[in-house]
Structure formats: C-alpha cells, structure tokens
Amino acid sequence: MPECDHCGAHVSERFARVFADEHGQIRACPSCSANAGIAEVARQRDDEANA
Description:
51 residues; 2 helices
C-alpha cells in the first residue's frame, strides 16, 4: 500500500494515482495537510526539497 513520503501515513492506490508526482512520490496527504490544499502543499514541499 502506498504511503505519504512526508508523514508516512498510508494512502489508497487511487490517492497515489492522483497526487503522486512523476517519480511516484507523495509529498502530502489528508493526515499531514488540509484536504482542500493537498496539491498546493505537495507542490510547495517539492519546491523546498529541490531548492
């Protein structure tokens, strides 16, 4: 089962297909970010990781 790379919480396969980046990393999930902002938080964490 896939998990969030930020907090380690398990996420569904469907969630991973939608929110994983091109490398399969999931940088945000409902356990560590607000549901309305998952995509934005994921982009922000990706930018910080690549800085």
